[in-house]
Design brief:
41% of the residues lie in helices and 8% in strands. It is elongated and about 65 Å long. The model is unreliable at 1-31, 139-167 and 382-387 (pLDDT under 50). By secondary structure, it is mainly alpha-helical. It contains 15 helices and seven strands.
């Protein structure tokens, strides 16, 4: 019998999948809270009214010291950091939403709490566990089975519409991104080895995913929280079911790729920096043009270009694969790809990365999550090649760490 949980997705399947409640009932006192918020965000109420109500609730919440008392849905404290302040996280989520729809969604979710302290703490921890941890916590770590501690409520009869492993990964993504960028890192202008003009400095450049591929790999046969993550993402960025499907299917295409040297790639994946859209004097966007935006305490070092000048802080993406000078250095094995489409990086994916980057650092969540992983490694746990992509996997990792500490 065919495995109905692992076939190609269709628009109708995903529409059904994302029309239901995916709210993690174990971390929300009201399991339909985010569903109500998503519906309110789509409604006719003026955005400013939603934001004003949310800001009044947050102003009162800031004065409520009970928000800092241990709550069942909190991540545990690490050796060096306490919990993330739920007031700060909610405020940062509201102020750094990637667009108006995201702002409406966050404001509506805060409004649904109606000033209830436990509900607001639960909401903050839901976004921490199901949005921020999967992005920041995706790294090589021990592999753990999914925990039953947090079970999202989604309909398994419709969940089979997703291809959980994205088996249609495009094998030519790396070559197409290299070709589009003219075999150069847009920041350092170093060339990729084997595709450089004579006497030009060349390195082994890497194709970075704008949104990590692991975020889009999940198993609909497991109640591991990954579907909840995508429900939050699509509401935070304002994607409908069709757009969400398109994104999932294009995570391994040039739309989701950049060509970077190793250091820039590592720091991008760590959310140390992102890309901020450039604006003209009249406020209009400059197409496909961005400037580096650094976050956190560690600033990017002044990595020099080959001519010893500082690396570029502003870039414009364009397809350089049609340039005659670039085509001279295309490897023979890649010439068959010259006529294939090489779309530029998707601005909405860059916007999502920037929003996550800002929320992680401005809320303090980045340091808290990093410290939990540091504590785990410091405890001597083995770290084979695997990924922590969901909060349930993180929960089990943390439980293992706590048990080891008690047994020591």
């Amino acid at each position: 019998m065919a495995d109905t949980h692992r076939r190609s997705s269709s628009f109708s399947d995903i529409s059904d999948l994302f029309s239901g409640s995916l709210t993690p009932v174990s971390t929300l006192s009201n399991g339909s809270q985010l569903t109500k918020a998503a519906n309110t965000a789509k409604g006719p109420k003026p955005t400013q009214d939603l934001v004003d109500k949310a800001e009044r609730i947050l102003a009162s919440f800031e004065q409520d010291q009970n928000r800092l008392v241990y709550h069942q849905s909190n991540l545990p404290r690490s050796k060096t950091h306490n919990w993330v302040d739920p007031h700060v996280l909610l405020k940062v989520m509201l102020e750094n939403a990637p667009n108006e729809h995201g702002q409406r969604y966050v404001a509506s979710a805060i409004g649904e709490c109606d000033g209830d302290t436990s509900a607001l703490v639960d909401l903050s921890n839901t976004w921490l566990r199901y949005l921020l941890v999967p992005f920041k916590g995706n790294r090589s770590l021990a592999s753990f089975p999914a925990s039953e501690a947090a079970t999202p409520t989604y309909n398994m009869e419709t969940a089979h519409g997703l291809d959980p492993h994205l088996s249609n990964r495009e094998p030519s993504m790396t070559q197409l991104v290299r070709m589009r960028e003219g075999y150069q890192c847009p920041f350092t202008e170093y060339y990729h080895k084997g595709c450089a003009p004579p006497d030009a400095k060349a390195l082994s450049l890497e194709v970075a995913h704008i949104v990590k591929r692991a975020i889009g790999i999940f198993d609909t046969t497991k109640h591991d929280g990954s579907l909840v993550t995508w429900d939050i993402i699509r509401n935070y960025v304002g994607w409908n079911a069709q757009r969400t499907q398109e994104v999932l299917e294009k995570l391994d295409t040039p739309l989701n790729g950049m060509l970077l040297d190793h250091y820039f790639h590592h720091e991008w994946d760590s959310f140390a920096w992102s890309l901020k859209p450039m604006l003209r004097a009249n406020g209009e966007l400059v197409p496909d043009t961005y400037e580096v935006e650094e976050m956190g305490h560690n600033q990017l070092p002044p990595i020099p270009k080959e001519d010893s000048t500082p690396a570029n802080r502003q870039i414009t993406f364009r397809d350089r694969g049609t340039d005659p000078t670039v085509q001279k250095y295309i490897p023979q094995s890649d010439k068959k790809l010259i006529t294939k489409p090489r779309p530029l990086p998707d601005p909405e994916l860059i916007s999502l990365h920037r929003a996550i980057c800002r929320v992680l650092h401005l809320s303090g969540a980045a340091e808290v999550i990093d410290s939990i992983f540091h504590d785990f490694g410091e405890n001597g746990q083995q770290v084979p090649s695997a990924k922590i992509r969901t909060t349930d996997e993180l929960d089990l990792m943390i439980s293992t760490l706590a048990f080891s500490a008690l047994s020591a």
